[in-house]
Amino acid sequence: MIHALMSGVIAFAISVVLGQPIVRRLRTQKVGKQISEHQPSSHQAKAGTPTFGGLIIWAPTLLVTAVAVSWWDNRSILLPLAMIAITGAAGFVDDLGTLQHRTQKGLSWRFKITFLTFFGLFAAVILYSQIRVESINVPWAGSAELGLWYIPIATLVVVATTTGVAVSDGLDGLTGGTTLIAFIAYGIIAFTQGQDYVATFAFIIAGANLGFVWYNAHPAKVFMGDTGALALGSSLAVVALMTGQWLLLPIIGSVFVAEGMSNVIQIAYFKMTGGKRFFRRAPLHHHFEEIGWAETQVVTRAWIVSIVSAFLGVAFALAVPS
Fold this sequence. Notes:
- The chain is 67% helix and 2% strand.
- The protein is an all-alpha fold.
- The protein has one domain (2-318).
- The chain has a two-stranded antiparallel sheet.
- It is globular, with a radius of gyration of 19 Å.
């Protein structure tokens, strides 16, 4: 546990040190984000803030993981690293389409879902056939093998988690703070299972993410972008699946569930009622802004909910009979 925690601290330190030159470089490259007209009018003041901030997370993560985790003895850790690379690259391309003064558009949600489904299936097959974590763990009840049903379920977990995290990326510090709490929770769960290398990896991402939040705190100097959000979501899903405690993701990631479902509800209600809205604005964090909450209030309360959810999730994980 000491090794895992210290690895997280080192990742945080590297992230903070690298963050300043990365932000400076992004500014000189004029990669300022264009703010969507669908966001609250108060967000237009953020136009021009550099995006691609996920680079502040992934550079330290890869560096520290290479040193702190024994890759040869624990080759399964290559799966979440591969998902980071694949989805982070897709997020980078998508972020290019959100820049100011660019005619290129970002990736459509239809393409993103198709892309995530394909690579979610890839991850699910590896988890089932190579890592062999095909069970469902139920608190107080025990574990049961799912067989081939595990593959579509794991694919759905990857797609749902990744999209939920991506949708939540809209306020300074919101996604960074809530995902780092979720990774800490799964790091603790992995450690209690004796999967020290998974715990170390989770704490490394949490530490690097915390370093990113240093620069993303309100008012943000840099945005995470899909470069960070897609990779965070997909790697969180894979880590949860590797621990076998994926059933607890809706609890530990309750904020992501609420954010994702708010979009689904808004769209469905809009179509069923011929143009009426269920929320004042979706996703959910914008609804809270519209009813008068300050941005910092929304983010802080989301962190609070995430911490309580993490407590519950870890408690339920410990309640699964060994």
